[in-house]
Amino acid sequence: VKQTTQFIVGAAGENDSVIVKYTAALYDRLKMQRVYFSAYQKGLGDNSLPGEMSTIQPTTDHFVREHRLYQADWLLRIYGFSSHELDLALSDKGDLSLVKDPKMMIARRQPWLFPVDVNRAGYEELLRVPGIGPISAGRIVEARTEHSIFSLQQLRKMGVVTKRAGSFIWFRGASAY
């Protein structure tokens, strides 16, 4: 049986740390198929709920927060990040940045892991690089069986967002870029 659930984000004043930890637990312990997130919109439900919004119309920040939680969810569910790794994307108050995506925050807080050599890194290492997703990581690993990667153009053709990945990767000739 496949199950999904949904968090109404902001109805109880919780921070993102709590939501991310519960999401990870739902995947790990209950084998939940998918977790969804919706920004709480006060006035559309029970007015007695405290929530964090004072008007019926939510602000852009509430939808950006929802989007960041979906990004964190992908890191857990698709990319194989642990909830402990996601802690690196949280502020001191336990919230995800509204400006930077979680994967970029995690990478910047672990400079000792980078740059990653795209011609030698394993699939899981490549997934930690901002701008490289599961499809492009698979393409990189597959391409290396036939030839070395020596240019950003090759990586772009594989689906890598080189603008994001550039400072986190290395290959012979990379200094030319």
Explain what the structure shows.
The protein has 177 residues and is mainly alpha-helical. 39% of the residues lie in helices and 9% in strands. The chain has eight helices and four strands, in the order E-H-E-H-H-H-E-H-H-H-H-E. The strands form two sheets. Strands 1-2 form a two-stranded parallel ribbon. Helix 1 links the parallel strand 1 (4-9) and strand 2 (34-39). Helix 1 packs parallel to helix 2 (60-77). The longest helix is centred in the middle third of the chain and has 18 residues, at 60-77. The model has no long low-confidence stretch (mean pLDDT 90).
Tags for this model:
single chain; 177 residues; mainly alpha; two-stranded parallel sheet; 8 helices; 4 strands; 39% helix; 9% strand; elongated
| SSE order, one letter for each helix or strand | EHEHHHEHHHHE
Q: Can you tell me the overall shape? A: elongated
Sheet with the most strands?
A: 2 strands, parallel
Low-confidence residue ranges: none
**Secondary-structure-derived class:** mainly alpha
Q: Count all strands and give the number.
A: 4
Counted by DSSP, the helix tally is 8
* Euclidean distance between termini CA atoms: 50 Å
Strand share of the residues? 5-15%
Q: Radius of gyration over alpha carbons?
A: 19 Å
**Strand order of the biggest β-sheet:** 1-2
Give the oligomeric state of the chains in this entry, treating copies of one chain as homo and distinct chains as hetero: single chain
- Overall pLDDT confidence: 90
